[in-house]
Design goal:
- It is built from 8 helices and 7 strands.
- With 246 residues, the protein is α/β, with parallel strands linked by helices.
- It has a single domain, classed as NAD(P)-binding Rossmann-like Domain (Rossmann fold, 3-Layer(aba) Sandwich).
- A 7-stranded parallel beta sheet has the order 3-2-1-4-5-6-7, sandwiched between helices.
- Helix 2 links the parallel strand 2 and strand 3.
- Helix 1 crosses helix 8, helix 3 packs parallel to helix 4 and helix 4 runs parallel beside helix 6.
């Protein structure tokens, strides 16, 4: 089990969507555990650079890389640049996503594509590009991010829910495709609140989840650490929802 600094020393992680929120928290946790980190961002260049600077203060190597998750050529270049910069790639965490509300009758082709391309196409092609690097040392790890919408389905979030259901199946397919050199798992969070989030999010979750609280970033980063360390786990979707899906 991970828990001491330098447990990941010598390993390199690429975290997509690492400029903000959970992606940022994961990138910083990986660095605290000893990994060097490639920090991907889409539009959050300033925030990504701040993450890089924070990681470097911890004595780890870090660099920021930009790519639009709907652009396969940009994804491939980003992965190649990251692997070239650090000399290897051991861990890929696909957190980059959007969360678009779309009423069923008002869903457009553009809205459909916005959800499916970013949330499903992006992780697929990031994984495809990263796989040869991850497999090189026989201990590669991919962690995808689904959510409860992909398991339960949400009204007025049809494209989003379908995209995240696709991430669940993507995880299972990749676990078979890339075994045994690369393990592939997913995390499906419920409501995870960050500082500054609307208080009604937390109130809603307290009412609906048996554990009586929303998740915190530390709950997610602990799960990431577990899945990196759990060498007999692949193709699994770890639900972190305080029991809400019950």
């Amino acid at each position: 089990m991970l828990g001491k600094n330098n447990e990941l020393a010598g390993r390199v992680a690429l975290v997509t969507g690492a400029g903000k929120r959970l992606g940022q928290a994961i990138a910083l946790r990986l660095a605290r555990e000893g990994a060097d980190v490639a920090v991907h961002y889409g539009k959050s260049a300033k925030e990504a650079q701040e993450v890089v600077e924070e990681i470097e203060k911890q004595g780890r190597r870090a660099a920021a890389f930009s790519a639009e998750m709907t652009d396969v050529r940009a994804i491939r270049k980003m992965v190649a640049d990251a692997a070239g910069r650090f000399g290897r790639l051991d861990i890929l965490v696909n957190t980059a996503a959007n969360f678009l509300q779309t009423k069923f009758a008002e869903t457009t082709e553009e809205g459909w594509a916005a959800s499916l391309d970013t949330n499903l196409k992006g992780p697929f092609f990031c994984s495809q590009a990263a796989a040869p690097h991850l497999a090189k040392f026989g201990r590669g790890v991919i962690i995808n991010f689904a959510d409860l919408g992909g398991l339960l389905g949400w009204r007025e979030f049809a494209p989003h829910s379908i995209s995240k259901a696709g991430v669940v199946m993507l995880t299972k397919v990749l676990a078979k495709e890339l075994a045994p050199a690369v393990r592939v798992n997913a995390i499906a969070p419920g409501t995870i609140t960050m500082p500054g989030d609307p208080p009604e999010w937390e109130q809603d979750y307290v009412q609906k989840a048996p554990l009586g609280r929303p998740g915190r970033p530390g709950d997610i980063t602990d799960a990431v650490m577990y899945l990196i360390a759990a060498e007999f786990v692949t193709g699994h979707v770890l639900v972190l929802d305080g029991g809400r899906s019950l």
